[in-house]
Write a structure and sequence with these properties.
The protein is an alpha+beta fold and 417 residues long. 26% of the residues lie in helices and 28% in strands. It folds into 2 domains: 170 residues, 3-Layer(aba) Sandwich (Rossmann fold), CATH 3.40.50.10330; 220 residues, Tumour Suppressor Smad4 (Sandwich). It is built from 10 helices and 18 strands. The protein is globular and about 60 Å long. It binds adenosine-5'-triphosphate. Adenosine-5'-triphosphate binds next to α3. InterPro entries: ATP-NAD_kinase_N, Diacylglycerol_kinase_cat_dom, Lipid_Phosphate_FormReg, NAD/diacylglycerol_kinase_sf, YegS/DAGK_C.
């Protein structure tokens, strides 16, 4: 995919999905974003996605060269007082980086929705770590700063930061402030005996995990997953497609069989004190034995009506299913509703539309903050992972693991706020 920025074009890459949301992103870019960038004297390279998967492939194929160009450009023209960037892989000779980490910031403006952001994140990480020689390490660790212009349907990441219009997002970008954007690794049980050192022993046998992708928004099972799945086929309805799909799935409400296990540290929402309470018996510390680490701290046996594992508090303006979720913390927020009837789930979702009242009010709502969660379904099941779908095999071999990543070589992302 030919286009990539050259050093004189830095510091900004703009990637635009013309198919997102109301399909007006190109228009908004031309009328609002482009003039503002020109006025702010911000040079940029523009990339328009041509199809689903384009953004991911683009970054997978090009991010290495993009970073090399950026490092060379910074080395040739260092900002006054800036730390010199050190080398990337073998291509760039290490420069005299003697104090502090290299300050290499790759800025990417994403014009579209959460699906496009998901592709950018996964493409960047595949490009950096996909080949045998990952070139990001303690000596070279760039920041990847995302500025999201919310022109998708839900825009969960931007909405969770209180940004609901392109102009507000543009103002945040121009303001230059950013916070960490933490991602969740999604892995599936690897039944072939070899590879990763990432082990867990949830059923008392040695188990390895095959990383599948990273998510930054929401993973779900049950009603929410079915709603997103059916809404894909209703794209022609525009933004009301989620409501139409949700109503259909509530009318024909199903309960979804699964077993959910939370490992390690857990906080649970306590409806009496109205706060999150840490279960100290689950806290992992120096005295925790490997056996204790491998036992689940919480097990939910279902059946589930609604199950959501989220890094964002809001999925669209006003809809706040996981009100304590924080883009920048290292927790994964879990909303679990087991075996609820139609009236109960309507009440719960109605209150989630009132800025997250459901957590305070409904006995059927369980709310946790966790680090590692595993899901297993007794029959073939479907998970929604940032708007994509993962069909999982029945039983232990289809088990899926969600883990907020602590590896600094993965946690490269920042968000303009
Ligand atoms: N040029 C294109 N043509 C068709 N689909 C595209 C194109 N570029 C990207 N896509 C796909 O469009 C899908 C929807 O994009 P995106 O998520 O950005 O918008 P959305 O679904 O409207 O918003 P949100 O995810 O915030 O609800 C993504 O799966 C993305 O891969």
């Amino acid at each position: 995919m030919g286009i990539r920025p050259t050093s004189e074009k830095f510091p900004l890459l703009v990637i635009l999905n013309p198919n997102a949301g109301k399909k007006n992103s190109l228009d908004v870019f031309t009328k609002t974003i482009q003039p503002a960038l020109q006025q702010a004297d911000t040079p940029y390279q523009f990339i328009e996605t041509a199809s689903k998967g384009f953004a991911q492939s683009y970054f997978k194929d090009n991010v290495r060269q993009i970073l090399i160009d950026l490092v060379q450009s910074l080395a040739a023209n260092p900002a006054p007082g800036a730390t010199q960037p050190s080398g990337v892989g073998n291509e760039v000779e290490a420069t005299a980086a003697t104090t502090g980490p290299p300050e290499v910031v790759l800025r990417i403006m994403v014009i579209g929705g959460d699906g496009t952001v998901h592709e950018v994140i996964n493409g960047v990480l595949q490009g950096i770590h996909g080949s045998s020689d990952s070139f990001v390490n303690d000596n070279f660790r760039p920041m990847v700063e995302l500025s999201i212009i919310p022109l998708g349907t839900g825009n969960a990441i931007a909405t969770s930061q209180g940004v609901t219009t392109p102009q507000a997002a543009l103002d945040r970008f121009l303001g230059g402030k950013s916070v960490p954007l933490r991602v969740v690794q999604v892995s599936q049980r690897d039944t072939t005996p070899h590879t990763t050192s990432n082990t867990n022993n949830s059923d008392n046998t040695q188990c390895t995990w095959k990383p599948l992708m990273y998510t930054a928004v929401v993973n779900s099972f049950g009603l929410h997953c079915a709603t997103v799945f059916d809404a894909e086929g209703l794209r022609s309805l525009g933004n009301v497609r989620f409501k139409a799909s949700a109503l259909k799935n509530i009318a024909f409400l199903k309960q979804y069989q699964a077993r959910v296990e939370i490992f390690g540290s857990v906080q649970k929402y306590d409806r009496l004190s109205h706060q999150l309470v840490t279960d100290t018996s689950t806290t992992i510390n120096a005295t925790t034995s490997p056996q204790q680490e491998q036992q689940s701290s919480v097990t939910l046996t279902g059946p589930f009506t609604y199950l959501m594992l989220s890094k964002q508090s809001s999925l669209e303006p006003g809809f706040v299913p996981t009100p304590f979720a924080n883009t920048s913390d290292d927790w994964l927020d879990i909303l679990a509703v087991q075996n609820a009837g139609r009236g109960q789930i309507l009440d719960i979702l109605g209150d989630a539309l009132k800025e997250g009242m459901h957590v305070k009010q409904h006995e059927k709502v369980e709310y946790y903050k966790a680090k590692v969660v595993e899901i297993e379904t007794p029959t073939q099941g479907r998970l929604c992972v940032d708007g994509e779908f993962l069909d999982v095999a029945a039983g232990p071999e289809g088990r899926v693991r969600f883990e907020v990543v602590s590896d600094p070589n993965i946690q490269l992302f920042y968000l303009s706020v």
